[in-house]
Amino acid sequence: MKSWLRKRTGAAPPERAQPVSGGRAPAGDAPSAPPGEAEHVLRRLEWTAIRRLDGLLQGDYRTLLRGSGLDLADLREYQHHDDVRHIDWNVTARLQMPHVRVFTEDREMAAWFLLDLSPSVDFGSGEQRKRNVSAEFVTVLARMLTRHGNRVGAMLYGSGVDTVIPTRGGRRHVLHLLHSMQHRPVTPEGRITRLRDLLESGANLVKRRSTVFVVSDFISEPGWERPLALLARRHEVVAVRVVDPLELDLPDLGLLTMRDAETGEQVLVDTHDAGFRKRFARIAAQREAELRESFVRAGVDVLELSTDDDLVQAVVRFTDMRKRRARLAAGGGFPAHLRAA
Predict the structure, then answer these.
(1) Rounded CA gap, 145 and 66, in Å?
(2) Whole-prediction pTM value?
């Protein structure tokens, strides 16, 4: 048992294991979605989520997700929160004082979704699976962006990057994106997720500065941290991590046969053993800390979506955090009602 736990702290962490009863169907037996299912899902989300979030992520001019802003508007002295990539070195040399270029904000933006749809995202301990949460988030964000004239595209990863959907706008394009996520062939077992392949492919494909959402559970072979940091140097990157409560805290369920969703390996565990649950929680907490450090080093924001959380509330919390940080970076303080907190 201890050797199994130690083994899972490496390339295949314990969070990927799931009960046999909730496993994947054999290849070729995956049920196909009925016609119009994508339309039905989008209509439901338009009533339950998009109407509540409309206007929050994409404002008139001041917005959390903005375009590339190619028109030069002015020059001003460098401040500590400015992007060093905007420094005008010619003016800096002449005036002996760092100056940055100020660009006119471009309302139109291109957003890319780098989607990890490997077998580990099929897990869910409740009514929702991580794959469903991922699909709903992508649909909501894509529809909100395209409603304001922006373009969205996607790269889909199973055992490798197998589908690229170019950036386009419109409701039909959102339906095409959702349909592509719903009607994917079953990924064969025995292949470990290599998230770095998805990130490197995204860096090679997306040339113009864009907003990139990396949607994954980040259960992967090590080595994705540096490609994520390199991607964030060129683009505005948001890491959207989908999680399930059972991956963080294992309850007392008695004897369970756990199966690795990607390798198919099975192991019998006694969740009634308090020592085992403590070791599991310790490993999960260690992995959480390592993930947060990796995101901080890469310089990306993180939006966590849980299978037992409300999608709208999670997005609202994330955007509120971004607004407060942008206010602080611009030299402002916290609102009066937040100072005590």
Answers:
(1) 11
(2) 0.72
Strands 211-216 and 161-168, bridge-based pairing: unpaired
Q: Are strands 110-116 and 211-216 parallel, antiparallel or unpaired?
A: parallel
Q: Is residue 193 a contact partner of residue 224, using CB atoms and an 8 Å limit? A: no
* Residue 51 near residue 42, CB atoms below 8 Å: no
The helix/strand/coil state of 236 is: strand
Contact 44, 73 (CB under 8 A): no
Position 42, amino acid: L
pLDDT by position in tens, the chain (length 341): 333 333 333 333 334 444 333 333 333 333 344 447 888 988 999 888 888 887 565 443 334 454 444 556 678 888 877 777 788 888 888 888 898 887 655 556 789 999 999 888 888 888 889 999 999 999 999 998 898 888 999 999 988 898 999 999 999 999 999 999 988 877 776 678 899 999 999 999 998 889 999 999 999 999 999 999 999 999 999 999 999 998 888 888 888 888 777 777 888 888 888 888 899 899 999 999 999 999 999 999 999 999 998 898 888 888 888 777 766 655 555 444 444 44
The answer to whether residues 296 and 113 touch, using CB atoms and an 8 Å cutoff, is: no
Dihedral-angle region of residue 150 (phi above 0 means left; psi in -120 to 50 means alpha; beta otherwise): beta
Q: For the chain, give the number of residues.
A: 341
